[in-house]
Design brief:
The complex is a heterodimer of chains A (224) and B (247). By secondary structure, chain A is mostly helical. Chain A has eight helices and no strands. Chain B has one domain (36-189, 203-242). Chain B has helices at 15-47, 61-88, 91-123, 131-152, 156-170, 173-184, 203-235, 240-245. Classes of the chains: A mainly alpha (224), B mainly alpha (247).
Chain lengths: 224, 247
C-alpha cells in the first residue's frame, strides 16, 4: 500500500467510525456552543462588551473543544488493540496519524467553524469581521489538533491522561490563540489581519509536516 | 583479568561511574555558588550605584535577570539531554533531564516573582500581559507539564523517552521567549545586556549581575547533580554496586 493509500485508508476508517458514533462529535459541538453561551451570562449582556470579548471567547471555546476531542484520537484504538496491529502491520505510521488527524478535523474542527457564524451573531461581532474569524479558525484548528495529537500519543493509556493532555497542550496552544484571536481583533479595529493569518498559516504548515511523524514516534514510545 | 587503563569519553555516561563523580563534584559547585552569590549580592546591593531613573528598585535585577536566564538555559540543556536520550538511548541523560526540571521550574518561578515585585513600583502593576512575561509563564508551564508527564508514567523507559520528546516539542518555545521582545515589542523594556552593542549599564552593575548569573549556574549544577545522585540510587537500587555501597 502506498503512503497516500495508507493515509486515505486511515481517513476513511476514522470517518466511518465517527459516523457510527455520531454522539462523540455532537458532544464536542455542544460543548463549544454552551461554553460560548456561558460568557454573556457571566459578564453581562451589554453589546459593546460582547463585541469586545467575542473573538477571544469563541477562540478559547474552540481550543477547549479541541482538547475534548483529543482523547478519542488514539485511545479507542489503543484499548481495543487496533493501534498495536497498525504498528505491527508495517504501514507508515505517520501517514496513519495524518489520516486520523484529517478525519478528526472533518468531524470536530469543521462543524465548529460551521457553527461559528451563529455564535458571532450572538456576540454581536461585526459582519465584516466574520470572514477573518472563519479564516483564522480554518488555519488554526488543524494546528491545535496536530499539537494535541502529540500530547495525546504521549499520554496514551495513562490514568491521568485527559488532565495531562490539557496541561501539556495549553502552553503549546498559546501562539495559535494569540494570532487567531489577534487576527479578528485587528479586523474589528480596522487593521489588516494579514500578518496574523500568515503566521497562523505558517504554523499550520509546520505542524502539518511535523506533527504526524512526531506523534507517530510518540505512539511508538507509548506502546513499546 | 588484566584491564588496560584507557581514556573513554563515555566512561561517565554509566550511572555507576557517574554516581561517585557527581558526589565529589557537588560540594565544589555548591561552595562556588555560595561564594559567587555572596560576592554578587555584595557588589549588587553594596557597591553598585543607585539607578538615576529607577532608584533602588532596580537592584532586584541581580536576582531577576540571572534566574530568567537560567530558566531559559536550563530548558535548552534539558532539550540537549533529550536529544541524547532519543538518539542514543542513554539512561543518564534522561536522569539529568529529570534532575534539572525542578531547578528550571524554580528559576522560572523566581524570575516571574521578582519581576512582579519590580513591576509594581516601576510599571505600577504586579503583572502585565506582555510578551516576555507571558512567555516566561509559558516556560514555567512547560516545566510543570514535563514534570507531570514523567511523574504520571510508571514505566521508566517510556517516561524517559516520552519526556524527551515533549522537551523537544517544547524547546521551540524558548527562542520565541528570547525574540519576543523584538517581535511583539510591548511594555517590557528591551534587553539591557547585549553581546553586540556596548552595555548600557554601569560596570559595577554588570559585574554584580554576571557574578549572580555564575552563582545561578553553579547552584543549578550542584542541585541537579545532587538530585541525579538520588535518581541513580532509586533506579539502580537492585544493582550490585548500590547494595555494596550501603553494605
Amino acid at each position: 500500500m502506498t503512503e497516500l493509500g495508507t493515509l486515505a485508508w486511515a481517513l476513511r476508517r476514522d470517518l466511518r467510525l465517527a459516523m457510527r458514533r455520531r454522539g462523540d462529535a455532537l458532544n464536542v459541538l455542544g460543548f463549544f456552543a454552551l461554553a460560548c453561551s456561558m460568557f454573556p451570562l457571566a459578564v453581562g449582556p451589554q453589546r459593546e462588551w460582547l463585541t469586545r470579548i467575542g473573538p477571544g471567547v469563541i477562540w478559547v471555546a474552540a481550543l477547549l473543544a479541541t482538547l475534548l476531542a483529543l482523547p478519542r484520537l488514539f485511545e479507542h484504538d489503543h484499548t481495543d488493540g487496533t493501534l498495536d496491529a497498525m504498528i505491527a502491520s508495517g504501514r507508515p505510521l505517520p501517514m496513519v496519524v495524518a489520516g486520523k488527524l484529517i478525519a478528526a478535523w472533518l468531524v470536530t474542527g469543521l462543524p465548529l467553524i460551521v457553527l461559528t457564524p451563529v455564535l458571532a451573531v450572538a456576540f454581536s461581532l461585526p459582519m465584516h469581521a466574520l470572514p477573518t474569524m472563519l479564516a483564522s479558525l480554518v488555519l488554526g484548528t488543524p494546528t491545535l489538533l496536530g499539537l494535541g495529537a502529540i500530547a495525546g500519543a504521549l499520554t496514551l493509556g495513562l490514568k491521568a491522561g485527559p488532565t495531562l493532555v490539557t496541561l501539556l497542550c495549553l502552553p503549546l496552544y498559546v501562539p495559535v490563540l494569540v494570532f487567531g484571536a489577534g487576527a479578528v481583533e485587528a479586523q474589528v479595529s480596522g487593521l489588516s489581519p494579514a500578518a496574523h493569518l500568515a503566521l497562523l498559516a505558517a504554523g499550520m504548515l509546520v505542524v502539518a509536516l511535523a506533527a504526524p511523524p512526531v506523534a507517530a514516534q510518540a505512539l511508538r514510545i507509548s506502546v513499546e | 583479568m588484566m584491564t588496560r587503563p584507557r581514556m573513554n569519553a563515555f566512561r561517565f555516561a554509566a550511572p555507576q561511574t557517574f554516581y561517585p563523580l557527581a558526589g565529589r563534584l557537588v560540594p565544589w559547585f555548591a561552595a562556588l555558588a555560595a561564594a559567587l552569590a555572596a560576592a554578587g549580592l555584595y557588589v549588587g546591593f553594596g557597591i553598585a550605584p543607585e539607578d538615576f531613573q529607577q532608584g533602588e528598585v532596580y537592584r532586584i535585577i541581580f536576582i531577576h535577570v540571572p534566574s530568567a536566564w537560567m530558566a531559559m538555559f536550563t530548558y535548552l540543556v534539558m532539550a540537549g539531554y533529550a536529544v541524547l536520550t532519543l538518539g542514543f538511548r542513554t539512561r543518564l541523560s534522561a536522569m539529568m533531564c529529570r534532575a534539572l526540571a525542578p531547578t528550571g521550574a524554580l528559576m522560572a518561578a523566581i524570575s516571574l516573582w521578582t519581576g512582579a515585585i519590580w513591576g509594581r513600583p516601576t510599571w505600577g502593576t504586579y503583572w502585565v500581559w506582555d510578551a516576555r512575561l507571558t512567555s516566561t509563564l509559558i516556560l514555567l508551564f512547560l516545566y510543570i507539564g514535563y514534570i507531570a508527564l514523567v511523574a504520571a508514567i510508571e514505566d521508566e523507559q517510556r517516561a524517559d523517552r516520552a519526556g524527551a520528546l515533549l522537551l523537544l516539542v517544547g524547546v521551540v518555545n524558548v527562542p520565541i521567549i528570547y525574540f519576543s521582545v523584538k517581535w511583539w515589542n510591548t511594555l517590557h523594556q528591551g534587553a539591557s545586556v547585549s553581546l553586540t552593542a556596548a552595555p548600557k549599564m554601569a560596570a559595577t552593575m554588570l559585574t554584580g549581575m554576571l557574578l549572580m548569573s555564575l552563582a545561578a549556574w553553579m547552584y543549578t549544577i550542584a542541585a541537579s547533580l545532587h538530585r541525579v545522585q538520588s535518581i541513580i540510587l532509586e533506579r539502580e537500587r537492585h544493582a550490585r554496586w548500590v547494595r555494596q555501597l550501603f553494605a
